[in-house]
Design goal:
The chain is an alpha/beta fold and about 140 residues long. It is built from five helices and five strands, in the order βαβαβαβαβα. It has one domain: Cobalamin-binding domain (Rossmann fold). Helix 2 crosses helix 3. It starts with 13 loop residues before the first strand and ends with a helix.
Amino acid sequence: MREQLTAVEAGPIRVLMAKAGLDGHDRGVKVVARALRDAGMEVVYTGLHRTPQEIVATAIQEDVDVVGISLLSGAHMTLFPQVIDLLKEAGVFERFILIGGGVMPDEDVDALLAMGVAAILGQDTPPDDAAVLVRGLVAKRGARV
């Protein structure tokens, strides 16, 4: 018996796409969500103005592989650490791949990566590249059992 299932055998990649805080710009996250769906992934979109608590609760409830947070408000250095802390408090941080998207200074991107965010996609990232990145991150992690 094989010890680990491949991502394909485990079922489609499940991605939560969230808009956190007061950021009301949702066109980009919807475009990326559609590209992920078109690439065969199951996508759950939270809608606008979600709190870190709502994002974490939804990720756990929906049993997603990837949590994507889109931020254009400049609150990334506040909201990402809150999400990370809540995931750790719930004992599930290692269960999810956390990615982000939006406009962020390079030094903030480096700090977020050091905190455990797997990747940050800039505003100019083509949606199809986001799908390739997500597939690569899930393949690297391996399927959850």
